Amino acid sequence: MIMTDNFLPVQADGYLRSWLLLGPFPGDPRQLLKAPLIAEAGALPAAGKEESGKRWTAVESQASVFDFLPLTPFWKSHTNCCAYAHVYVHAVRPVSAVAALGSDDGAAVWINGRSLFSLDASRPCTPDENRIPVSLIAGWNRILVKIQQYGGGWQFCLRLLTRRGLPVPGLSYSLDRPRLEGHPRGKSRRPPLAMSVCPAETTGETVFLNLTLYNLTSRLITGGKIHIEQEGRPAAIVSCPDLPGGELRQIPIQLPLRYWARAFVVPLRFILEGGEKPAFSISAEASPSLAAAFGAALSTCTGGLPADLRELMGDLHRALGWVENFENSPVFARPAERLTRALVGGNLPAISRQGRELGAAVRAEGGKMRGQSVSLIGHAHIDMNWLWRWPETVQVCQATF
């Protein structure tokens, strides 16, 4: 999970590719579109936040069209259901714009709590098919989309355009709920840089993070120092290079893995003190997903445990390694989260209790799986347009089938 006090620019084509998702909600898509499954007008999502029995999850699409089927394999249902998508968009000044929407199937749209569009339909996703007049305020704007799914493909895409049909310039976005009191409301107060932090990989006892800086101005910005803190205590200091106008730069950061495990409870904070005049300061926070935190905690917090608990933790680590996206599983997520917090806190009785609870859940699911069977079905064909001669036909058939 990544939380930013700042924001990243919307790409040049205007499409919003990163969203917080909540779903799926099964049922009759026509009724689901009308029913308020969450507090739609007042939604203030954050990654990992639970709402209506589900958890907001950050998902990024490489393409302009967001395709639920490949991007949400951890969801159990992709038919006769609906889902919500949310993003925070920042504008430096008030903007009269057009929200250009495409959806498969129907969709509803809220901006800053106002219901602006609702269409029950069974249709393919056509970019910019619906053009919805919107008014963006100076500062942060909340965009919520509900997308229906009857069956087949399930997609949507949305971008903000000017009245002339061009992408609105100067927009930025954030997935997690911004700290609204710390964000600029007008052009004159806008920080010259945007910053975000993403995990790259974990190797041994080290976590590798990518800190991304983006120069929001057209001029060179003098670098400074990036202070990394946890619970107000310094973890590391890295140098920030000078950054030419309009350029993006990634700074690799290495930290002991114990900081990343701890960040599940207390996020790491990254503070950049700019080296130019007038001085400026921007910051971002980062914490791991449940799966990453669980692995980091097992790697760094089990050394002092009794032998039987260490063995149990190893068994759980191996068992959940076979479960894809276990952090989204209603069976494993809650006990795994409680166990991770107990490990980070060093609470031995809680570690024992939560470890055995998670072990019981793993065994129960294993018992269900033993009663299932898996069929592996293959397909092959031979293109007869090649006009094989008889010996070759026999040989190819034997080799193929």
Strand coverage percent:
25-35%
Average pLDDT, all residues: 83
Q: Class by helix and strand content? A: alpha+beta
Coarse morphology: globular
Unreliable stretches: 1-6, 180-190
Topology order in helix (H) and strand (E) letters: EEEHEEEEHEEEEEEEEEEEEEHEEHHHHH
Q: Major beta sheet, specifics?
A: 8 strands, antiparallel
The end-to-end span amounts to 47 Å
Q: How helical, in percent, are the residues?
A: 10-25%
Number of beta strands: 22
| Rounded Rg | 25 Å
Instruction: Figure out the total of helices.
Output: 8
Structure overview:
The chain is an alpha+beta fold and 401 residues long. 22% of the residues lie in helices and 35% in strands. It has eight helices and 22 strands. It has helices spanning 29-34, 68-71, 257-262, 290-300, 307-320, 333-345, 348-370, 390-400, and strands spanning 2-4, 8-9, 18-26, 50-51, 54-55, 57-60, 66-67, 81-91, 95-104, 107-111, 114-119, 130-136, 139-149, 155-161, 172-174, 193-203, 206-215, 225-230, 233-239, 248-256, 268-273, 281-286. The strands form five sheets. Strands 2, 3, 6, 8, 10, 11, 13 and 15 form an eight-stranded antiparallel β-sheet that branches. Strands 1-22-21-18-19 form a five-stranded antiparallel β-sheet. Strands 7-14-9-12 form a four-stranded antiparallel β-sheet. The radius of gyration is 25 Å and the shape is globular. The relative contact order is 0.12. The model is unreliable at 1-6 and 180-190 (pLDDT under 50).
